[in-house]
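Researcher: We're teaching a course module on how sequence relates to structure. For the next exercise, students receive a sequence and then see the predicted structure as tokens, so they can try to spot secondary structure elements on their own. Here is the exercise chain.
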Amino acid sequence: MTVNGARERASYRAAATDLIAVADPEPVPDHGEVKGEQIPLLIVFEDADLLVVDKIAGMVVHPAPGNWSGTLVNALVGRGEELAEGGGPERAGLVHRLDKETSGLLIVAKTEIAHRRLSAAIAARRVTRRYAAMSWGHFTADTLSVDQPIARDPRDRKRMAIVSTGKKARTDFRRLARFTSADLLRAHLFTGRTHQIRVHLASVGHPVVGDDAYGGGGGRRLAGLPPKRHFLHAAWLQFHHPVSGEQMDFRSPLPDDLHRSIAQLGESEDLYADPDPLTTFGFYTNPD
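Model: And here is the predicted structure for the students to work with:
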């Protein structure tokens, strides 16, 4: 919707002389079926019960308005494997999600029992998810815990915000390296709210580098990031197998765009020559 040719907030009060234009909504496809597509995926583990995907940045996880194709679920359906029904056809197999521009590890359930047990494990905080994040500015200490509720931003429904009536959300941060203009962090999720890490870092004045939605998009050239990309990567995932009970441990190295960015922010070509800067900076040691 536009008012006099410009977009306005939902709270805008129309005047009698305003010219209001309303576009027809995007047609909604049949929710009973998700079209399978032949989209390459990086599968780091797979058995009869589940698989773990290393998602690329720029891929939406499941179909929704504006993204009915090209998603991770479209790719999973296109593989022809059985998937747990989960939350419906559009979320087939999904146990948790990652934002579009966040890369890294994601669990997918193939069977209903795997989906049920993994979902319960996440709710009980028995699935450990740690992210590599770069934030603008510097923490005053090497560790920080943000325990603030999150809900839709009442002023902008496309964003999330700290809202007193929102759902409980906690993220623990540990600084691994301090560069000239930014800190390299390990973020440990205790809950899984939409945009949680991004909102929590923005709330303390240190938004994720490259995050246009929450105030971290400035200085993109300084960070050496491509358009729309933010520095957030789901690098470490630990959980017990939902059927065998075996301890599972998966680690994803920084993708090339973030590898280049860390070298640029660290002002050191040696960081790009290092095949695994996360290990170098102790990401996988001294766990929270």
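Model: If you want an answer key for the exercise: The longest strand covers residues 128-136. The first helix runs from residue 72 to 78.
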